[in-house]
Request: fold
Amino acid sequence: MNGRKAKAIRRQAKENMVEWLQSLLEGKEKDKVTLTSVLALAPKQTHVMNFGTIKLSIYSYRWFVKMVYQGKDWKDIGV
Reply:
């Protein structure tokens, strides 16, 4: 994958992350979530241990990047 494609994927992941965090908040708190502040407000833990296996934590930045890369929409994921 070239740099332009990777940069576009990361940008789309940030936009999806902003949309997700804004869907959780109400009122004036929703306005505090922007593209520049989303990584500071997002969960810091990227992986979890599950029955002795390390897996990618859901709704982390890396998870959003993975979903964009695979062409999946984060709203359609049934957890």
In short: The longest helix spans residues 3-24.
